[in-house]
Every structure is written in structure tokens, then in C-alpha cells.
């Protein structure tokens, strides 16, 4: 597909000149995902194989030896899964490219509980086994183990750290604490891995066997730690040192949102696909340890990276007052809410409120003739909505259809504003975008609203792989 020329009024980046359509590219992504998952499973199979080859089941004669085998296998599987789980949230770009932030985070959350169960089994089985040998009760035996074996002390601390991480990750606890507290507690997972290492190598017969098993475990640790060190620490720091990114200017885009323009040297290092997001860390006394994810609100260009930030909580409220000249560190880009996932000629972009930034950036860079792109923007107040004037101007320049749905909700379950009597969300969507069934649809807004849009798309017959969502959730 080729792109019609622009009429330059609003300063816009040149849209991309071509895009590859068709479902084949999704199959290629699926093949990449299959390979990554096969490697994950292969590491678990290798762990079990090492256990069996080291005679894991050969010496089973009584309850004590059964408990010993259970202790070893549970510990090995838990360690392997924990390393995979940490890799999933290390913001590793090769994982992000295949799965996107949402799916990787979901997989990470799902692994938390099985890991904790395996660690509990490991602790209970080993304390029970030793109490059978010594004749002590479980509590005395546990105290004796922690007191007399130095590496067990650190492993007990690792166990406590893991329980804290998993318990604070349960939805019921997460909803009660600010993101920053949860984030700091979650960093204990790294402490848990490091604290558990000494006892794995000093007491774990399977790991310290000095043969293939030892090399395998060292390789696994080094691989995970190297990914974390590079993607989470070194890469962002090196880029920050060479680019010296600072807030260049700020524009108010509504009564509770601002656009922040960042510029520095070597801006091409921050090139990203429209729809992607960065972790934004303002280097101020309050902000340096409180990074927040924000989507670019304009397509990449050589002058600046731009974010549009709505006031949704304490930090984003503080950010409304960010000053020009503030140094900012960006980690990323991340996410697959991009044209790389597009398979159809027609595109429908749907945003609600502060969900507009990635939709606005996509509309700027997307390849499309006038009739190909429809933008639906749901707002409470048309006169006070983030990026409203700009989105109108952009749609006018590119010739895209823009429909603003302003005002109160039509019904409590609707994601649209009030419309003609008796018309359902589906009726109205089909009227706005009759081609929606055969389009790629990009949706960004609050979680409940996004689910409602997805239900309507499902009724309209838009296949699931053509629906792309970005949720502002952690
Ligand atoms: C991929 C992605 C892209 C985003 N893009 C934008 C954007 O372009 N513009 C914009 O204004 N907002 C965006 N957000 C949301 C923004 O990150 C949060 O509103 C912000 O982090 C809230 O911080 P707070 O301390 O002000 O609020 P809090 O009081 O801590 O929380 C307010 C709300 O924001 C959520 N939240 C808080 N911290 C985070 C976090 N680090 N990650 C995800 N959700 C969080 C909480 O669940 C809560 O619902 C995006 C979020 C994600 C995940």
C-alpha cells in the first residue's frame, strides 16, 4: 500500500510509506512464540532429566528418602521456574517483540503461585525429612536448621521474601496499595533469587555435582542475570549518558493533562513504533525511583519524544508541574500495540480519555488512504479532552473519519455516549464503521471500558486476532 501526500498545517511526521498486510506475519510471530515456549519447556525437561540421571529416584527405600527426592525435585523446578518468571518481567526486548507487555506480564503473574507452592513443598519436605532423622518436632528442627547451617539462614530469608512477593501480588492486596509500594516489595523477588543461591550450591547435590548439571545451572543464572543487567540497567543508562534527555517544553492539553516534549542528543536512539510506550523516570528527588509507563503521543521524529500525561494519581498529579530542563531517563520502547500487528487494509482506532496518546501517534504514522482509517474518540467533555484539537486537525489533514462520542454514557453497560433512542452500541458502531468486521481495531482506555468495546467487536464479528488493546494496568 502507498500513502497519499500531506497538507502540512499541524507539524506531523511523515507516515510510513508501506505496510505488510495479511495473516502470514501473525503466523511468523506465532512460530517465534512457539520456539520461545519450547525452550522454556526444554529447560524444565532438562532439570527433571538431570535429577533422574543423578539417581533422584534410585535410592528410594523409606519415607525419609521419598521426602529427600521430593525436596530436591521441588527445589530444582522452583528455581528453574523462578528464573523464567524473572526473565518475563526483565523487559527483555526480544520477549516483548513476540508477546507484548500485557501477555508477558500475565504469564509472569500466572507463574507466581506454582513457584510458591513448589518452594513450600521444598521447605516442608526437607524440614520433615530432617525431623524424622533427629526425632525433633518440626518447629524445633526448623529452628535448628536455620541456627546451625549458615546458608539455610539466607535461604529462609529468601523464602520469606518470596511469600511477601506472591502475597502482595494477589489482586486483593494489590488493590489496597499504591503502585510504588507494590513495586518496591516486588523487587524482593530479585533478593529471593540471590539469597537462595548459596544453599543451592553448598547443599544442593544436583547443582554442585561439578558435571553437566553445574554448568547448566550456572549458564541459566548467567543468561537471566545478563538479560536483566543489559535491558533493565546498562542499556537505559548508556543511552541516557549519551543523549542527556531533558524536558524541552510542556503544553497543557486539557484541564488535567499535559504534553511533555523531551529532547537531547542522538534522538534516533529513541526511535520507536507509534503505539509503543516507555518507562518514564524524572530524575527529581521524588521521581528517580518512581518510573511510570507512558505511551508516545506523537510518532517518532528526529527532534523529540512526546508523552501526554493525565492526572490519575499522586505521581501523575505531581508530573503536571514538571519543569523544563528536568532530566528524564527512559526505558524502552515496549509493547506491540503497533502497526506491526496490522493485517487488514481498514483500521478503526478507538480511544477513551487519556487512552488517546497511543491512538493519536498511530493515526499520525499509519499507512492509509482517506477511507481506510476511522478514529472514534470517547470523552466526557468535548471542550476539555486531552489532544482533542490536535486529533481533529490530524484527521482533517490525513482525511481520516473522526467521530467524537461526548457526554454521559448511553446506558450503564455502554461504552458510548447517549445516541438515538433504542440504538445499541453495535448498531452505532456498524453505522460509524460498517467495515469493522474486516478491520484491524486498536482500542485504548480504562479496563472495564475496553472489555465493553471488545464485547461489541465480538458481536460485530471482528476476529479476535484483529483486535489490539493497550491497557493502563499493572
Ligand atoms: C502500557 C501503558 C501505557 C500508558 N500510557 C499512558 C499515557 O500515555 N498517558 C497517561 O496519562 N497514562 C498512561 N498510562 C497510565 C499511567 O502509567 C498511570 O496512570 C500512572 O502510572 C499512574 O501513576 P500515579 O502514581 O499517578 O497513580 P496511582 O495513584 O499509583 O495509580 C492510579 C492508577 O494508575 C495505575 N498505575 C499506577 N502506576 C502504574 C504503573 N506503573 N503502570 C501501570 N499502571 C499504573 C493504577 O493501577 C491506578 O489505576 C499507561 C500505562 C501503561 C501500563
Automatic annotation (TrEMBL):
Sequence ranges assigned to domain FAD-binding FR-type in this UniProt record: 240-340
Needed cofactors: FAD
Primary localization: membrane
Localization of this protein: Membrane
CDD domains: FNR_like_3 (cd06198)
Topology with respect to the bilayer: Multi-pass membrane protein
Protein's UniProt keywords contain Hydrolase: no
Key words of the record: 2Fe-2S, FAD, Flavoprotein, Iron, Iron-sulfur, Membrane, Metal-binding, Oxidoreductase, Transmembrane, Transmembrane helix
Record InterPro entries: FAD-bd_FR_type (IPR017927), Fe3_Rdtase_TM_dom (IPR013130), FNR_nucleotide-bd (IPR039261), MRET (IPR050415), OxRdtase_FAD/NAD-bd (IPR001433), Riboflavin_synthase-like_b-brl (IPR017938)
Any GO molecular function: flavin adenine dinucleotide binding
Keyword Membrane: yes
Transmembrane spans: 35-53, 73-94, 115-132, 152-172, 184-203, 215-234
SUPFAM superfamilies: Ferredoxin reductase-like, C-terminal NADP-linked domain, Riboflavin synthase domain-like
GO cellular component labels: membrane
One Pfam family hit: NAD_binding_1
PANTHER family: 1,2-PHENYLACETYL-COA EPOXIDASE, SUBUNIT E, NADH OXIDOREDUCTASE HCR
Protein name, as recorded: Unannotated protein
